[in-house]
Amino acid sequence: MQTPSELPPVNIFGAEYFIEWGRVSRGASFFLPTTATPKQVIEILKPYAKELQFEFAVRTRCEFGRYGVRVWRTY
Q1: Using CB atoms within 10 A as the burial measure, which of 3, 11, 16, 51 is most buried?
Q2: From CA 38, how far away is CA 45, in angstroms rounded?
Q3: How far is CA 4 from CA 8, 15, 19, 48, 62, in A?
């Protein structure tokens, strides 16, 4: 099992997102500016969820004047 800091960046349609997984506690969330749908983001996050033993909920949002998704760690 890799440590959270050893995981590669999340790549969504060529854009890389560096997530500090060690700081994503249960109930925490982060915003990803992207045009990807929540279903697409969940698929991309599956290997991270498996490796970290996390579960995620993803919802479409418009925050800071930007379209994207908010990702919550539910477990």
Answers
A1: 51
A2: 10
A3: 9, 20, 9, 9, 28
Token output for 25: 């506690």
Q: What is the pLDDT of residues 10-63, one digit of tens each?
A: 999 999 999 999 999 999 999 999 999 999 999 999 999 999 999 999 999 999
Q: Total structural domains in the chain? A: 1
Q: Phi and psi (nearest 5°) for 5? A: -75, -15
> ∠ at Cα 18 (56, 27), nearest 5°?
30
**Domain span holding position 27:** 4-73
Band the pLDDT of 5: cuts 50, 70, 90: confident
